[in-house]
Specification:
The chain has about 425 residues and is mainly α. It is built from 14 helices and 15 strands. The chain has a domain of about 160 residues. Helix content is about 45%, strand content about 5%. The strands form seven sheets. Strands 5-8-9 form a three-stranded antiparallel β-sheet. Strands 1-2 form a two-stranded antiparallel sheet.
C-alpha cells in the first residue's frame, strides 16, 4: 500500500521530462507510469479460499480488475478473460506464483461448476466469458516450463471445458447451434446476458439479439483451442490425436470463411444464423481469426488494409463509426464501440499483426495506444478501463456501469507493450 502511495506522490510532482505525443517514446518517458503499474497490483490482489455469501472461494490469490475506495461499485471477484489479459504484463519469475495460482483458480472453478464462470460469484455461474484457457495454459508452459505431465493434465481439463461448455447442445450450455459453430449464451436464455458472456457489454455487433449470432471472436478462440490441442498432442507424440484436432480446426475455418468472411470489405462479420445473413457492424472482433493463425496471406493483407476503418489518433476504435451514432432510442449505451478503444483488443490486434509479419503496423498501433494511456496518466495520474481513441483528451463513452480507473488489463497491456516495444526496440 505504501508503494502505491509513494508512486502517486512521485507522479503528482512535476514530471521530469517533456513528453510529446508526436515523438518516439523512451524508457524514461514511461518510467513513472510503469512504477505506478507495479505498485498497483497489491491493491487488486485478493485471497478468498472459502465461499463468503455470494463470493466463491478459490484456492490461490488472484487479481481483480480495479480497486477504488469509497465507491458502491467495487470488485472482489476473479474474472475469466480479465485474468488472462492481466497476467500478460507479469509473465516473469517475480510473478510466477501469482500467475500459476490464477490459472489454478480458473481450473478449480471449472472442476466445481463445469464452467469457468463470468466471475467467481454465485450469480455469475450461468455464463462464462471469452475462452482463453488453452492460450493461458501455453503461456504458463512456455514462461515457466512446468513439464509435459502438467501440460497433459491442464489440456485434459481444457478439453472438458471445450466439449462441455462451448460445444454444448442443450441447457445449461446450448452454444453449438449452427454448422459446427457456437454462440455466446447464458443459462437464462436472455439476449443481453448472452451478450455479457461475450465480454462486449454492450455492443452494436449483435443488435441486442446475441443468442441469434455466431460471433467471429468466439469461434476464432475455439479454432485456437483446436490447434492448441493438436499442438499439445504433437508434444506428446500422439500423431493420431493431433490429426483429429487439425481436422476439427480445418472444418471450423472452412465454415467461418463461408459464413463470416466478406471478401469485398476484407473483414470477418458475426453471422446471424436465424436470419441467415452476416451482421453489418465492422469491429475488431474481425482480427481474432488472424490472432489465432486462421487466415491465409491474402486475408491477412486485406485485414491490414481494413485497419484504417478503426485506426484513429489515439489507437483503434472498437467498431467503425456508425452513421447514426451509437444510440438507438430505448437501447443501452454501447461502450464496446466507437469511439472507445480497449486494451485487450489492442493486444489481440498487435499480436495478430506480429504473427503475420506486419511488424511495422504492430509497432505503430502499440505506440499509439501507449501514448494515449501515458498522456492521460500524466494528466490524471490514473489508467482507465477504456479510452476515447478518436479524441484522446476527452473521456471515453460511458457504458451500463460506471467507468473504472486502475485498471487491471489496461495496466498489464501497457506494461507488456513497454516490454515489447520500448525495452526491446525493433
Amino acid at each position: 500500500m505504501a508503494s502505491l502511495k509513494k508512486a502517486k506522490e512521485v507522479v503528482s510532482a512535476k514530471l521530469p521530462f517533456s513528453f510529446r505525443p508526436d515523438k518516439e517514446l523512451h524508457p524514461e518517458d514511461v518510467r513513472l507510469a510503469r512504477d505506478y503499474v507495479a505498485a498497483y497490483w497489491s491493491k487488486v490482489q485478493r485471497f478468498h479460499p472459502k465461499d463468503d455469501e455470494s463470493l466463491l472461494g478459490v484456492p490461490k490469490p488472484y487479481l481483480v480488475p480495479s480497486y477504488r475506495e469509497k465507491t458502491g461499485f467495487d470488485y472482489n471477484e476473479l474474472y475469466y478473460w480479465d485474468s488472462y489479459f492481466m497476467v500478460q504484463g507479469m509473465l516473469d519469475e517475480d510473478h510466477k506464483e501469482l500467475v500459476n495460482g490464477i490459472l489454478e483458480d480458473l481450473m478449480a472453478l471449472f472442476e466445481r461448476f463445469k464452467v469457468i464462470p463470468n466471475a467467481s460469484r454465485t450469480y455469475l455461474t450461468g455464463r462464462s466469458q471469452p475462452p482463453f484457457l488453452t492460450t493461458f495454459i501455453f503461456d504458463v508452459y512456455q514462461a515457466y516450463n512446468p513439464g509435459d505431465k502438467w501440460l497433459k493434465e491442464a489440456m485434459k481439463l481444457a478439453q472438458r471445458e471445450y466439449e462441455t461448455v462451448w460445444m454444448g447442445v442443450k441447457k445449461p450450455n446450448e452454444r453449438l447451434v449452427y454448422q459446427g459453430l457456437s454462440r455466446y449464451y447464458d443459462i437464462n436464455h436472455l439476449h443481453d446476458l448472452a451478450e455479457a458472456e461475450s465480454g462486449w457489454d454492450m455492443t452494436p455487433r449483435f443488435d441486442r439479439r446475441a443468442l441469434n449470432y455466431l460471433p467471429v471472436d468466439l469461434n476464432a478462440l475455439l479454432y485456437k483451442y483446436e490447434t492448441d490441442f493438436a499442438r499439445a498432442a504433437r508434444i506428446f507424440d500422439d500423431t493420431r490425436e493431433a490429426a483429429r484436432w487439425d481436422d476439427a480446426a480445418e472444418v471450423r475455418k472452412k465454415n467461418m470463411n463461408e459464413l463470416m468472411w466478406d471478401r469485398i470489405r476484407g473483414l470477418y462479420y458475426d453471422y446471424n444464423y436465424v436470419k441467415k445473413k452476416r451482421g453489418n457492424v465492422s469491429s475488431l472482433a474481425a482480427f481474432f481469426p488472424m490472432w489465432a493463425g486462421m487466415v491465409d496471406d491474402k486475408q491477412a493483407a486485406a485485414l491490414v488494409k481494413a485497419l484504417r476503418r478503426f485506426e484513429n489518433k489515439g489507437g483503434l476504435a472498437t467498431t467503425d463509426a456508425l452513421p447514426l451514432g451509437q444510440f438507438v432510442l430505448g437501447s443501452m449505451p454501447t461502450q464496446w464501440a466507437y469511439p472507445n478503444g480497449w486494451a485487450p483488443l489492442h493486444f489481440i490486434v498487435v499480436k495478430a499483426l506480429e504473427r503475420y509479419g506486419y511488424h511495422k503496423d504492430a509497432r505503430r498501433i502499440a505506440m499509439k495506444w501507449l501514448k494515449t494511456n501515458l498522456t492521460w496518466f500524466n494528466d490524471e495520474h490514473v489508467f482507465l478501463e477504456k479510452y476515447n481513441v478518436v479524441s484522446p483528451d476527452k473521456p471515453p463513452l460511458k457504458g451500463v456501469y460506471p467507468s473504472q480507473t486502475g485498471f487491471g488489463w489496461t495496466n498489464a497491456v501497457f506494461e507488456r507493450f513497454c516490454q515489447d516495444y520500448i525495452d526491446r526496440p525493433h
